[in-house]
């Protein structure tokens, strides 16, 4: 199977998914009418999918805390195909802000394996690009500036709670059979108390103030979604005590400044999207469109584990598996295509 055919098949699947969303009915009809033609001619697919407005920029954003595995390759592949379908840009961004868990060599290997598989990024740490750098550890000033902006706008605050206090809160919650959550205590510190603690050099993090009243969003795959996060979670940390951002802040800042139009990521992030949308709202930014991709599972329904050696792309590369064959399998797993081959 060549890649053009892969693109074509996934395009059909995507078109039919999009067809089920409100406001895209005409695309559905067009897709049905043109099905035979679409299989043969990618140019037709291009015209048929012109409902996506503006420049398409998508990203694959793994953290180099491990090597690329089948699940990651599949997420990258869907992003790549989506970008190519719309004449857009496929970006590789490495989320290396958890410095304690970095695996030596993983960052280089992830990009090597994307190239080996035939889905190279257009912009990446190695290739560069107009909106880099593409390594989060090189963008710390930006996150810190945005976190300050959140504090100044009243959407963020300094938290001076010690790790011991947080651990105690957690233990108390577990003892009471409740889900542990931060109690938002530092929300209520007065400005002069905050200034005094900062002047003393007290260790602190910055938290984002979760507001009630989350608006629903339409996910490309899962449809309408909404999680009233303030009811179930304490205010999340956005800048850690070591000055590094957490995933929640870094990913929205980068998606905004890298002009990402569509976020296509694993469905484990679906539950966090309302929180991210609250942050977009607080900063007055237009959010991207979200599409959460179902995860690849083992045949017994269990999650793929990094402890399984035979899920890593380097393993297949070493074993002499052809990249086209691997892409074919990855494309078909969980794709929803009806034809069994
Ligand atoms: Zn606190």
Automatic annotation (TrEMBL):
Cited InterPro entries: aa-tRNA-synth_I_CS (IPR001412), Glu-tRNA-ligase_bac/mito (IPR004527), Glu/Gln-tRNA-synth (IPR000924), Glu/Gln-tRNA-synth_Ib_cat-dom (IPR020058), GluQ/Sye (IPR049940), GluRS_core (IPR033910), Rossmann-like_a/b/a_fold (IPR014729)
Reaction(s) catalysed by this chain's protein: tRNA(Glu) + L-glutamate + ATP = L-glutamyl-tRNA(Glu) + AMP + diphosphate; tRNA(Glx) + L-glutamate + ATP = L-glutamyl-tRNA(Glx) + AMP + diphosphate; tRNA(Gln) + L-glutamate + ATP = L-glutamyl-tRNA(Gln) + AMP + diphosphate
Source taxon at top rank: Eukaryota
Enzyme class: ligase
GO molecular function, one term: glutamate-tRNA ligase activity
SUPFAM superfamilies assigned: Nucleotidylyl transferase
Pfam family name, one: tRNA-synt_1c
UniProt entry keywords in alphabetical sequence: Aminoacyl-tRNA synthetase, ATP-binding, Ligase, Nucleotide-binding, Protein biosynthesis
GO CC annotations, alphabetized: mitochondrion
Family: Belongs to the class-I aminoacyl-tRNA synthetase family. Glutamate--tRNA ligase type 1 subfamily.
Gene3D superfamilies linked to this entry: HUPs (3.40.50.620)
Entry's EC annotation: 6.1.1.17, 6.1.1.24
Record-given protein name: Nondiscriminating glutamyl-tRNA synthetase EARS2, mitochondrial
Subcellular location: Mitochondrion
UniProt-listed GO biological process terms: glutamyl-tRNA aminoacylation
Domain Glutamyl/glutaminyl-tRNA synthetase class Ib catalytic intervals: 55-335
